[in-house]
Amino acid sequence: MFKAVAGERHVVFSWSPHVTHLHGAIHNYTLSCSPSPSSLPQSPSSQSGSLTATGFSPNTIYSCSLTPNNLWGSGPPARTTFTTKLG
């Protein structure tokens, strides 16, 4: 589960943290969005399960993915699409 609750210029992402993965423990995640906001953390912790990101433009459709990473590489990404609120 990966979801986003969008404000005008910020988004609260939440997900179910993976404690383990097929090839070992998750070390971090890679968060990416298109279009790319001006400020986006690239490696959310494997333990948190939520993150508030800023730098989004109002009234814009974004498509974001969250990819788990471990020592063996990257797992399949979770994806979500949302529209930020009108300013």
Helix and strand composition category = mainly beta
Show unreliable segments.
none
Number of helices: 0
Can you count the beta strands? 7
| Approximate helicity band | under 10%
- Report the CATH topology name: Immunoglobulin-like
- How much is the radius of gyration in Å? 13 Å
Q: How large a portion of the residues is in β-strands, by DSSP E?
A: over 45%
- The CATH architecture would be Sandwich
Number of domains: 1
Overall average residue pLDDT: 88
CATH top level class name: Mainly Beta
Biggest sheet overview: 4 strands, antiparallel
CATH superfamily: Immunoglobulins
Provide keyphrases for this structure.
87 residues, mainly beta, Immunoglobulin-like, three-stranded antiparallel β-sheet, elongated
